[in-house]
Fold these 2 entries.
Entry 1:
Amino acid sequence: MASHSESLALREQFDTEAQQKEASTLGMWIFLITEVMFFGGMFLAYTVYRSWYPHVFAVASSSLNVYIGAANTVVLLCSSFTMVMAVRAAQLGKRNAIIWFLILTLVLGGVFLGVKAYEWNEKFVEHHVPGAGFHFEGVPQQGPAQIFFSLYFAMTGLHAMHMVVGVGLLIFLIVETRKGKYSASYMTPVDLIGLYWHFVDIIWIFLFPLLYLIDRHLKT
Amino acid sequence: MITAAEQTRVDYLNESYGIKSWLLTKDHKRIGLLYLATITLFFFLGGAFATLIRVELLTPQGGLVSSETYNKLFTMHGVAMIFFFLIPSIPATLGNFFLPMMIGARDLAFPRINLLSWYLLVIGGLFALFAMLAGGVDTGWTFYTPYSTTYSNSWVIATAVGIFIAGFSSILTGLNFIVTVHRMRAPGMTWFRLPLFVWSNYATALIQVLGTPVLAVTIVLVFCERFFHIGIFDPALGGDPVLFQHLFWFYSHPAVYIMVLPAMGVISELVSVFSRKQVFGYHFVAFSSMAIAVLGFLVWGHHLFVSTQSVYAGMVFSFLSYFVAIPSAIKVFNWTATLYKGSISYATPMLYAFGFVGLFTIGGLTGLFVASLGIDVHVTDTYFVVAHFHYIMVGGTIMAYLGGLHYWWPKMTGRMYPELWARLSALVIFLGFNLTFFPQFILGYLGMPRRYHNYPPEFQVLHVLSTAGASVLAVGYLMPMIYFIWSLRYGKLAPANPWGASGLEWKTPSPPPLHNFDETPVVTQEAYDYSGVIGEEIEVG
């Protein structure tokens, strides 16, 4: 332990920095597994109702704007790329590069949330928000159509909430990096928040086709 | 007499003072004690509700409280006992305190997250308390839809939010334990040298981490359904209330194993120490914990035998439920085999362990009754089911919890409890428990449904027996409460290893120093190595 005494980052319950880093990383992966189970409940509900009402889901899905959704997917993928670059910069100990890549990630995340807000607003205008005023043209069963949009809001809403948390974490990282907390020898938080960011990204990779693309085969 | 050396020795209790040193502590031992105080409060709160239920059931016409109040009483009894006592009970108190010590670590991997998890339990508990004081909740602890989402006029959301927050407490404890067992073991502490208490808490942690998030998302959906009427559980919109039952039991059946697996770990420790023998078939007992954790996730459908579930699904779930009996039976047989030719001591913890084995066996075997499709139709939602799960939860978990508390009390506090009173409490609790719950098997089999506050007069004799037993049980639970507190001041000073036990937690003074060990221990032998001490008398205070 004495040989590491110059490091501020080693907490007293650990013997070595390697042990600490392994513990933190394992902890993060387990946390992400809990997140998979958390989203899993909603994916289960989606699976059940889509298999019960395939036609209503296809028609309701077609009312979503695929182009906006696709563009937003690209934005999010780019943010994952800039996040990877920030982690790489941290590994190399380039503080300025970390900050710039984190800011880029933050901006892309902000764009995604802005576009999402625009899409949600559209739903209010079109009366596609579940509740008393709900109305959806094109299918006789209003109930299942409402369930589709309930799931749409629940799943994208939960995803957006995770994005907001991610944005907060990015701001935290930027502040800490500016203070000089991270270097090539200690960059665990950058690494782990990067994992979280990618996880939230991957959730969207599943949400996009499940919500936006289920009627594609009907049109060809 | 306190010698000068003992007076000056610094341990985790006297290294700092003041309310802040407790509320901001990152020491797993102090956090374990914070949990102990918190869940004891909820135990007596849940016990108070149970008392009112039993008093109400003394007479068939149900005159003491209205049906509505009765619904709230059994709901709040269940909520307090399950989410705020049984789930955190052994892992968050004894596990928190002893898991790091048993593997030779200075603390859990994430001490701050450990403290956070206690605060989450407290905040969740305050939500639930608020709901109880504001008027209560009447859905049953199972919150079945559509009653909970559409019709109930009680404090469903406040209670659900409390459970949601407490769930994250449980998740974080599980996460902390998994990482700690993987990464914090002392040199030489290989996986198969781990005490079985650690194995069972590890298996429990896996369930906490995989199951609890599903409960969390279910609560989110109930919340959305109740506030925004999104239709997912509403048949009027094409939704399915039974989907709620699937999601709920996907967590809540494994949750039964969150409650009982750590108890089994405690029993493995006790049976070994007090018969001076290595646990028979160590590997089988260790793996049976893992098997229970895995199989526990595949049996939730046995709660839906009469809920429109397909009969073929029912057959599969029935079969898998029988399957869980195998690892459970492995444990019971191996504990029994451990006793064989052991040098058995009848110290208090061992009395609790004996109580556990007997009561858990009855609870487990009646579990097979309700896991079989035909019999379950007859006893579904009757007192038979109530008796069955109380034999597991109260006869099993609480017996083991109390046994563990007695066993480790000298280490936690540095004081011995009064042995005679403690043995008496074990006896009173065992008798009171059986008198309370055995008549309920008969009641249920004869057709008395659960959750009713009035009943045909011919059931009264059995109900009176049950209430009489509950009174005895209440006395039994108050006894440890009193003499444990008494012992903090007047108890005999405890030596480092009063039981002659082999675990690492006994190789450090009582109470332990802040970082548990003065030097990181090096492990050179298997757990429960009593080969050198056969025949040695255990000193009983």
Note: The mean pLDDT of chain B is 94.
Entry 2:
Amino acid sequence: MNPDVVGDIAWAGLAPELILVAGAVSLLLLDVQRKPGVGVLWGSALGIMVVALALGIWQWVVAEPSGELVFGGMLLLDPAAAFARLVVLVVSILAVSAGRGLFAHLGTRAAEGLALVLLASAGFVLMAASQNLVMMFLGLEMGSISLYILAGITGDGVRSDEAALKYLLLGAVASAVFIYGAALVFAGTGSLSLVAIGAFLGGYLLLSPAVVLIGIGLITVGLCFKVAAAPFHVWAPDVYQGAPAGIVGYMAAVAKVGGFAALARVLLIGFESFRADWAPVVAAIAALSMLLGAVMAIISADIRRLLAYSGVAHAGYILTGLASGSSGLSSVWFYLAVYAVQLVAAFSVISVLGGPASSGSDLAEYRGLYRRSPMLAVALSVSLLGMAGIPLTTGFVAKLGVFLQAWQQGLEWLVVVAVLASAVAIYLYLRVIVTIYMQSPVTDDPVAYDRPTSWSLGLATAFTLILGVFPQPLLSLVESAGQL
Amino acid sequence: MLSLLVLTPLLGAAVVSLVPARRRELFLPLGMALSVAPLGVAGAMFFSFEKGRASFQMVEKMIWWEPWGVSWHLGVDGISLGLVVLTTLLFPLSLAVSDSITDRRKAFVIAMLFLETGLIGSFLALDLLLFFVFFEVILVPMYLIIGIWGGGRRVYAAVKFFIYTAVGSALLLAAIIALAVMHSSRTPEGALSFDYLALLNLDISSTAQMWLFGAFALAFAIKVPLFPFHTWLPDAHVEAPTAGSVLLAGVLLKLGTYGLLRFNLALFPEATVSLVPVLAVLAVVGIIYGAVVAIAQPDLKKLVAYSSVSHLGFVVLGIFALTSAGLQGAVIQNVNHGLTTGALFLLVGMLYDRRHTKKIDDFGGLAARVPQMAGFFLFMAFASIGLPGLNGFVGEFLVLVGSFPSLPAPTVVAAFGVVLAAIYMLWAYQRVFTGPLTNPANRNVADLSFKETAVLAPLAALVLLLGLYPAILLERTAPSVEAILDRIEQSTDYQAPSPGRLADVFVSTSQDGDQ
């Protein structure tokens, strides 16, 4: 397939994203014209996402993603892209349905916030589907810029502003690093299309590969920043802590899905022939992320910083899957999907407890949560047990898949590091669970939350537990998504 | 039948969760009734178990996820048989004495039933991953039982328990993955497999065996617990509620010795033979250390806890004696220790319910007030010491007889453990139950109620039965034990010393055991 041929303008293949973007624009217009209530806006945003998800499922099941290049070779509509879209949309729906409180708090700016969520989702899906470094950058920026604004959208609090500014500045640096890397790769190979780059690098022996290697390195660093892998994670704890509680889970989850999908495409399609060069680096980043994330999370007193550091550790596990090459890709997808759901559920609970616009959540506020609200306590602890990788949760199956692949690819040392890191990490999740179940509450006030939140939490909890025991449907789904 | 056995407690938990939380008086009786069901199934399993067969029986297998070679694969043999029955027996008994649990009873009963599923599943699993899942999942309910319903330092004890075991099982998971991958690289089809029976046929290099043995042994040594990994045990035991202690000592610890026997010996015979000295020394140190520390304990519950360290040292010594008498002794001592120590923890719990203290000094002269309780305590103490005619004698005697030919020096030292056991047990009995009744608080202690007698009586009956007629268990365990020994002899140049087959004296059926 010649990537330079201008392919069809395949509107149908992009229908879910088009709906998201069109929906975002109409929400803004509707807000200007009619000033509808928050409920209407929130409901229509949810409706838009559900329609997009339905189309996404339809495309998966009926149209069967063929892996065709569309839009002049910019996008590749393959199972991986379709799967990333499903994950992003499911996460968005779970987060927005639990996040009504945040949009109510935003008042007149609710439409703005909802439109940004829709745009960010579309951006990260496009990033996951992109087959060209420029397209990837566009998707990355579309998603990231929306998230920068969302991080500071409440505008009421130093911490929130600090988080937004920090995220913007460091994110911009990362984007610059990424695009500079893309430029160097273009200089070295003469193409921005990943397929063409892959073919060029696989077909010719470069006498001085330094430029390309530096380019690969910079692109990897830029994307590692987006997924918060150590040592490029320093922004994550501050942003997770400062941004409004109602949106942090969403931000963290979709950025990881988009970032890892892009990383997989870049490394496994574009630079597959340089695998001997990048695999050790990726493995080292993975090991560092797992250990550093686990240790730093243990000494965090704020549950959001704790989850941020645990997210660094999870980035490490996912990179372990990537380091094992294309055979590890399906385990990466599985991990991403289940982790994204756990993350959103955990932050939904945090948002209910601390208030949707709050910054910072001291672990001490969670004392005796079980007595105040058993449902929230169970939802949070199931997510945490899932993240800890306790059997009978999806987290265990995800870790097992990654470890199996890595061991088969000869990364035994990395698996040993990973199991030890998860043993350390168990302590930090236990700390939260001890606080929830075994300490007496500060107050006895029951915690109030709306019905959509309880649906969202119930769904996420059921997802983590049921697919933890019978993961076969998701496993067979990711098996087809694991072929690039 | 085995799937039914594993799943009945889980169904029970589902039933309990449907009962509204305000009917709190219902939960304990309901939990007991529901846990009698698995006991019935286990009884049926015990009697339909075919004697004289070494291979797994009542095997059930369902593919769980083909590409990874994981399946729901259950089976029972002589090594797991007694432990499964013991597990199902101890659950209704421990629920029966949990009246003192007043807070969140519903959650307590559900946690107990989950724990039961996990324990039965671990003993029956023939798929390594399935075993790991059960093995690891047990931690969660046990952690909650200690951490929510335990004593003053419960959170510390629960976290310590969880961390210790989780660290051990982390490397166990890595080793299990290594085995599955090894299977895929050594077989023509290249398929991953976690199946125990398939992995038995793997030809593993001796270096790999050492590493894998180490990872498995660490996980199980922490569980046993073998010296020097035992420090979590006294904390967990002392802080756990009575039911928790009974199950911890009675069944959970047995997972460690069971794992050593089932996995380390069978899968890594070469490493086993070369590491015998290390494990034998650790076992003997544990026997003596546990006993000496037990003597010095001012707290009755802690005394029984340390006695477990000592008794399980015998089991490990018996396993690594690598003689059929030693292995037989280990298997039966596993069950014996569950019965006697379970009963001792029940008695300590009953004393605590009456006096809210476990300090030995607070008691004295109780025998006059509570003759039945004193009688049961003395009976179980004798069983624990190894008085002939009671079950402990059979186990420890077999272990010592079996170990002497292959490990003479450690056995001689270990034999002192029996003497020390007599010291700490009888001295504890003397200080608690005999002498003048000095503490006025002990005047009004009531003797065993009908229910408490009913809880202790079946344990006492089994202690006597296994002491007088051990063949009922031995003739079922012998073939499986011999099969493991044969496996080691075939795959290494190790030869079990000839007196090692002395178990034949006790068991007439073991000659035709290896089919």
Note: Chain A has 20 helices and two strands.
